[in-house]
Design brief:
The protein is α/β, with parallel strands linked by helices. Helices cover 42% and strands 11% of the residues. It has an eight-stranded parallel beta barrel, surrounded by eight helices. The longest helix has 18 residues.
Length: 413
């Protein structure tokens, strides 16, 4: 499916409601459930890793780019999923993970990063050099951002060693400013100004030269976002006119980040507005947590898993402090149920892993339907019945898949 992304872009730019989900997660159950759903629907799916999550130093997952490809392929093989339908993407690849260093040193690290991603087999490459390094402004202008991105693009091309088939660059960014995305006077997230988006694309095109033909995506803000406690739903009647930014670029589509938790109708609407690439991550790990906590409530030791997770997060607060706010009750609620899903950083902890294993292995099979209905929706139970594997695994897969299903809307077939 090397040409799948270009095909989706072409269909979208031709006016079709065509799009592909980009699953940004390293959580094994999320990856398994997502790959199984793509297999069942006979669709391609993008699996993405971020620069701080997976890099040459291991990132916060401890996984290198080559290791991530092997990790996902192993999950696919065990689940009986065709590897060919998986497209690997790198998200926000640039100097961000090392921006405490001077620019020259951070860019040296970024060059190794993108080289390793491409050599490993990643082909959808989001180049983002928009954030300043030590001694620089927090956000760089288009000219400097594009110059650094072009530098990294050339490294990617060189890493292909003559075979650039399937290599596709995404440029631009919509990383929220410190404190989160700003809302307008109506309480909405303002979309990117089309003129600004057009200028960003033009700047990259100028600096990329012959490599400009490999640009396939432009990241902009359509007006979607979520905070730890609320979702900013995109008004369905809004057209921010961002397709105008792609004038003269028939092979480029728009990419939307932070689309998690939107109403199902938003995703085909985004496709109509030119967003053929739609990213999702926290909503899927949130669903994973939902399934585990549902099982926790009907286990022989109700609440045991949640208690362990609370202890792990209190003992190691770095991944949630600064992201959640309020009094003690509000903070506790956000740690476990916040839409930002910062709890996802704690599932690899050894204590968490042991608690999850104890929960999953502590049920007599099968769990009575009457008990399941007290914690799972009819939709989850119906989907679980249609899946394969042990009952607990099917319930977890089902919860995750229902969160992903809106991204596989009919017109994308």
């Amino acid at each position: 499916m090397a040409d799948a992304l270009r095909g989706i872009i072409a269909r979208n730019r031709a006016g079709k409601r065509a799009a592909i989900p980009s699953v940004c997660s390293a959580q094994p159950d999320v990856l398994r459930a997502s790959l199984l759903r793509a297999q069942a629907l006979d669709r391609p799916v993008v699996i993405e890793a971020t620069s701080n999550q997976v890099n040459q130093d291991g990132g916060y997952t401890g996984i290198t780019p080559d290791g991530f490809i092997g990790f996902v392929h192993d999950i696919a093989d065990k689940a009986g999923v065709d590897r060919a339908r998986i497209i690997f993407g790198g998200d926000h690849l640039g100097p961000q993970a090392w921006r405490s260093l001077p620019a020259d040193a951070a860019m040296d690290k970024a060059r190794v990063l993108v080289r390793d991603y491409v050599r490993a087999g990643f082909r959808k490459i989001h180049l983002d050099c928009s954030e300043g390094c030590a001694g620089e402004a927090a956000q760089l202008d288009d000219a400097e951002t594009a110059a650094r991105s072009a530098d990294l693009a050339q490294v990617c091309v060189n890493a292909c060693e003559g075979d650039t088939s399937g290599l596709l660059f995404v440029v631009g960014t919509e990383v929220p400013p410190p404190g989160g995305a700003r809302v307008d006077e109506d309480g909405d997230i303002p979309p990117t100004d089309p003129a600004a988006a057009k200028a960003t694309l033009a700047a990259h095109g100028d600096r990329f030269g012959d490599m400009a033909a490999m640009i396939g995506g432009l990241v902009v803000q359509p007006g979607v976002e979520f905070s730890p406690t609320a979702v900013h739903h995109m008004p369905l009647d809004r057209d921010p006119g961002l397709l105008s930014a792609l004038e003269g670029w028939p092979g480029v589509c728009l990419e939307a980040h932070s689309t998690d938790y939107q109403h199902p109708a938003v995703f085909p609407r985004l496709a109509e507005l030119g967003f053929a690439f739609q990213k999702v991550g926290p909503a899927l790990t949130f669903a994973y947590r939902q399934a585990l906590y549902a099982l926790d409530r009907i286990s022989t030791t109700p609440g045991a898993l949640q208690a362990v997770m609370e202890g792990v997060m209190i003992d190691h607060p770095a991944a949630w402090q600064g992201h959640y706010h309020g009094d003690a009750d509000a903070l506790r609620h956000q740690r476990h149920f916040g839409l930002a899903d910062r709890i996802r950083y704690y599932w690899p902890d050894p204590a968490a892993q042991a608690a999850v294993a104890a929960l999953r292995g502590g049920f007599d099979a099968p769990i009575p339907e009457a008990k399941l209905r007290t914690v799972f929706s009819d939709a989850v139970l119906a989907r679980a019945e249609a899946l394969s594997g042990d009952q607990v695994q099917r319930l977890i897969d089902a919860q995750i898949q229902l969160a992903l299903d809106p991204y596989f809307f009919e017109e994308a077939a």
